[in-house]
Amino acid sequence: MLDLKITNARLVDGTGAPERDANVGIVDGRITEVGEVTGKATRTIDAAGRLVTPGFVDIHTHYDGQVCWDKQVTPSCWHGVTSVVMGNCGVGFAPVHPGDESRLVSLMESVEDIPGSALHTGIPWGWESFAEYLDTIDTPYTLDVGTQVPHAAIRRYVMGDRCYDDATDADMQSMASLTGDALRAGALGFSTSRFYGHVDVDGNLIPGTLAQAREMTTIASAFERLDHGTIEIISDHLNEDDELAWIESIMRQTGRTVTTLAGANSGRIWEFAERVAGDGLSIRPQVGARPASILMSLDGTINPMKIFPTYREIMREPLEDQIALLHDAAFRERIKADTPIKYRNADARRFTTSYGEMFPLDDALTYEPGPNDSIEGIARRSGKHHLDVLMDTMADRRPVIFFFGGYPGNLERQRSAIDDPRSVFGLSDGGAHCGVLCDASVPTYMLAYFTRDRERGDKLPLPLVVHKMTQDSAGVYGLTDRGLVAPGYLADLNVIDYDALALEPPAMVYDLPGEGKRLIQKARGYAATIKRGKVTFENGEATGEMPGGLIRGGAFA
C-alpha cells in the first residue's frame, strides 16, 4: 500500500533527461516506484498532464535568523523549494560569546539588508557554540534547512575586537578547531567573503575579507579528516594568480568542492575550473538568474526620489499621500526645479542619477529590459521630462531595477553561464536584501521565463533548468539523497501547471518581527509541493504539514 501516488505526470526527473509520462509511488517519505505504478495508495494526486519535478534545492540563502521564527521559510517555500542552504557569504550567528550577539546582528543587517529589529526581536539566542545553534534550529519546517559555519562569526569569536586585524598563528589554529567542531556537529561547509562591497555599519570590511592565504589554508585543515563539507568563497580577486593559487592549494589539501560567485568580471574562473577538473578537483562557479541588481521603490531601502529636497519634505508621510503629491503638477515642477543632493558614495550617486541605467520593471516581469526601456529611453521616446517618467513610475508603485557591473542590454551572459556544465545555480539570497530584492523567486522565474517565455534571446531547455535546480545544486553540498525522481530518493516533489506558472509582482510587506519590512514575491501555478511524501502546499496554500527539518552534514557521505 502506497502512502501517496502521483498519476499522469509529465515527469522531468532532475537528471537532465527528456521529459516522459510516468506515475510516482511514495512510501515513508521516499520514492519507491517510477513508471507504471499500479498499486493502491492512501492518497492519489492526478497530475493530469502537469509537470512533475523534484523539489528545488536553493544553496545560497540567508535564512540564518528567519528560521527561528518562520518555520515555513517564506518566500522560498512558495516557489517549489524543498531544501535550502544558508550561512553564506561568511556571515551568520554562531559561534558567539554571550553579550556579543548584537555585533553579529549588525553584520547581518549591514551586509545582507535584514532589519536588525527583526533579528533582535525574532532570534531567541541562548547558544554559544555552533553545535548549540544547530540544536536550537533543529525543529520542524515545511522544507529542509542546512547551514555553513561563517568566517566572520568564527573570527569575531576567536579574536574579539581584533577581528579586523591580521590573525596570529594561535588565532588561525583556534579558527580551524572551531570549524572542525562545527563540521562534526553538522555544518554543511564553511563560507568566507573577500568582497569589498561587504562592509559593517561602521564602514569596515567585514572580518575575514583581508585574511591571509595562510589563514585560509589553516582553516581548511579542518576538512582534512572529514568526508563532507563544501567551501564557499565570495571574492573580488578571481582573476588574480595569488587568489587562485591558494584556492587551488585548499582544493588539493582537502579534496573538497569549492563554490565561488561568478560575476561579470570573473572570466578566469571558468578556465581555472576546467584546468583543475583534469586532476579530479571540483570548483563550481555559482551563477544566478539575473545579474547583480536592486529594485528601487518609494518604500524600499533605496528610493531614487530621496535626492530631491522637495521630496524629502514629504517622505515620512503615508505612502498614499506621497503618491498623490507625485501626481500633482505643481509638486512635480518643484521637484524638477530642485538641486539634487549628491551622494558621496559613487555607487549611490550612480543608481540614483543614471537614468539611462534605471529600468521600470515591466508588466511581464521579464527582468530583461532593452536600452530603450530605461527612464531616459522612455523619456526620449515619449517626449516627457525624465523626472516625469520617474515620478510616473514611482506613483504607479512600479519598482525600478538597476543592474550593477554593466548590464549589456540582455541576459545572454546569464543564459550562457547557467548553460555551462561547470556552473552551479544559486545566488537567490533568500531571506536577505529585504528592502531591495526578492530573488528567492528565481526557481519560478527560471521555469516560466527562461524555459518558456523568453523572446529576447535563446531559451534554456526545461530538463536542463530542472537539473540545475535539483540534482546538480544538491550535489555541490553532498545532499545525495534528493534532487531526483527515482526509487530510493526523498519524496520531495513539485506538481506544476507549467502553462499557467507565473510570478506575481514584488510587494513590500511588514511581517517581520518588530514590524520589519521585506519585499516578497508570490507565484501562481504550483498545484502541489511535496516534502518527504507530505503535501506542504496545495494550489498555493499551506497545508500545515511540517515534514522538513535540519540537514546535518555528513549524513550523506
Topology:
Blueprint: E1 2-11, E2 20-27, E3 30-35, E4 41-46, E5 51-54, E6 56-58, E7 81-86, H1 101-112, H2 116-122, H3 130-137, E8 144-147, E9 149-150, H4 151-159, H5 169-185, E10 189-194, H6 213-220, E11 230-235, H7 241-254, E12 258-261, H8 268-277, E13 283-287, E14 293-296, H9 309-312, H10 319-326, H11 329-337, H12 346-353, E15 358-360, H13 375-382, H14 386-395, E16 400-403, H15 412-419, E17 424-425, H16 442-453, H17 462-468, H18 471-476, E18 493-496, E19 502-503, E20 507-512, E21 516-520, E22 523-524, E23 526-531, E24 534-538, E25 541-542
Parallel strand pairs: 1-4, 1-5, 6-7, 7-8, 9-10, 10-11, 11-12, 12-13, 13-17
Antiparallel strand pairs: 1-2, 2-3, 5-18, 14-16, 15-16, 18-23, 19-22, 20-21, 23-24, 24-25
Structure description:
Strands 1, 2, 3, 4, 5, 18, 23, 24 and 25 form a nine-stranded mixed beta sheet that branches. Strands 9-10-11-12-13-17 form a six-stranded parallel beta sheet. A three-stranded parallel beta sheet has the order 6-7-8. It is an alpha/beta fold. Among the domains are: 2-54 and 497-542, Roll (Urease, subunit C, domain 1); 88-228, TIM Barrel, CATH 3.20.20.140; 296-402, no CATH class. It starts with a strand and ends in a 15-residue tail after the last strand. The chain is globular, with a radius of gyration of 24 Å. The model has no long low-confidence stretch (mean pLDDT 96). The longest helix has 17 residues, at 169-185. Helices cover 30% and strands 21% of the residues. Strand 2 and strand 3 form a beta hairpin.
